[in-house]
Amino acid sequence: MLNAMKIMTFVPTRNPEAARSFYEKTLGLRFLSDDKFALIFDANGIILRLSRVPEFKPDPFTILGWEVLDIQTAVAELQTKGVQFEKYGFPGQDEHGIWTAPGGTRVAWFKDPDGNVLSLTQFV
To answer: 31: buried, middle or exposed (CB in 10 Å: 19+, 13-18, 0-12)?
Structure first.
């Protein structure tokens, strides 16, 4: 049943103003509306709801990610917009924060204004 339905995703925010600026201006997602419960974005046909929450502790793992064709270009573009990529010290992680997994997939992590971990992935 649900395999034929579109999926949507939810990300918590304590600071909707900073989150809107980051997701709209820095990441380039199209802002759709604000229903007072969440800021709603179009993420290439996927609905992203930045849910207003009074308090939460960001998880230490990735909660949202994008598949990219060229991770070096994507990282460089986001760095020009002030995004800082996380360096976890993994073997195979370069000076830009891009980690190459044993199978060749490449991943880079960064955080939104609320500390949510986001990622870029270039599959082999």
So the answer is: middle
Q: Which of 46, 52, 45, 58 is nearest to 18 (CA)?
A: 52
Q: Give the separation between CA 16 and CA 9, rounded to whole angstroms.
A: 16
From the number of C-beta atoms within 10 Å of its C-beta (0-12, 13-18, 19+), residue 6 rates as exposed
Classified as helix, coil or strand, 117 is strand
CA-based R_g, the chain, Å: 15
- What contacts 28, CB < 8 A, 6 or more positions away? none
Q: 111 in helix, strand or coil?
A: strand
Where do the domains of the chain lie, and which CATH numbers do they carry? Answer: 1-56 (3.10.180.10), 57-124 (3.10.180.10)
pLDDT digits (tens, 9 = 90+) for 61-117: 999 999 999 999 999 999 999 999 999 999 999 999 999 999 999 999 999 999 999
